[in-house]
Amino acid sequence: MSLDMVRKWYPRARTSVDTVNRLLDTIDRVLGLKPHQLMHADSLCCDDVNAIQYPPRALEMLGPFHLGGLDGYPFAGITGMNAFAHHVPEDGAVIIFYAPHIGVTKQGALGEISRIGQGAPSACCGAAKGALEKLKRNEIIVGNISSLDFQMNTIEQIFLSQKQRILRADHPLFEATEVMYEAIDDRIEVLVKATHYPCKYLLLVGGIFINGDKEMGSYCQYKKFDCIDIESGERRSLLAEYDAI
User: Fold this and answer.
1) What confidence tens digit (pLDDT) does each residue in 154-180 have?
2) How, if at all, do strands 218-229 and 201-212 pair?
3) Angle 68-71-74 from CA coordinates, rounded to 5°
4) Of the listed ranges 9-23, 39-53, 60-74, the one predicted with least confidence
5) Where are the beta strands (DSSP E) in the chain?
6) Looking at the Swiss-Prot or TrEMBL record, what is one Pfam family this protein matches (predicted)?
7) Residues 105-141 pLDDT 10s
8) Does residue 185 sit in helix, strand or coil?
9) CB atoms within 10 A of CB 29
10) Is residue 72 classed exposed, middle or buried when 0-12, 13-18 and 19+ CB atoms within 10 A define those classes?
11) What domains can you pick out in the chain, each with its CATH number?
């Protein structure tokens, strides 16, 4: 029932365990690589609720190295990307998983969840919801980024750049999360181009990470699963192989 509620918003969503198992199975079948040959980095929100339910074999991967700050934007930047790039097995691959997150309750409400130890639902992602409320009130000033709240201000600027698209949507928070995914994806691509990976493959896995109520667990819907051959530069999508398992 919980997955049914999630799929009202994200029709291709799967549980986190199923998602990771399919990911590792696809890598094994297509590239012949086992979990211990994979260096894992993620760009997810620093929200405490984002503890992914990994199946046991996923713990054989190296990492994860955390690139993300509020709502998953890769605030670690080029320094962070270069740092973990030097940790990868030479005969293996780098996996970069990135996603903004959003909550879905067991009743199907979007943008909030029931957390452990709390009686009332709370916002998820709180940063995205806060930025959206400021956008609605016309309180975001173009170019206003302070060192005191750099990450939140960056999200506000991302939303402001797509103001009409977000506010005209049937569900502005859903649309704002799509905007956030696109901004994260764009920045990951820029960082990747500026980084050398001393391994065989680079795997870029982007999507929406979905938090459920405390008894529901978490889910994910992939938007991208690209494999880049480091030597040749050839890129191909593995989404069809992932979905076929």
Assistant:
1) 999 999 999 999 999 999 999 999 999
2) antiparallel
3) 30
4) 39-53
5) 14-15, 38-43, 62-66, 93-98, 101-104, 112-113, 122-123, 201-212, 218-229, 235-237
6) LCIB_C_CA
7) 888 889 988 887 776 777 888 999 999 999 999 999 9
8) helix
9) 14
10) buried
11) 1-244 (3.40.1050)
- Please identify which residue in the block is written with the tokens 């190296």: 62
pTM confidence score: 0.95
Residue with tokens 């973990």: 84
pLDDT reading at 243 higher than 90: yes
| SS3 at position 195 | coil
Neighbours of 109 (CB within 10 A): 14
- Report in angstroms the alpha-carbon separations of 126 from 56, 112, 159: 30, 8, 14
Distance (Å, rounded) from C-alpha 10 to C-alpha 14? Answer: 9
Q: Residue 219 to residues 103, 150, 155: CA-CA distances in angstroms?
A: 10, 29, 23
C-alpha dihedral sign at 3, 66, 41, 231 = positive
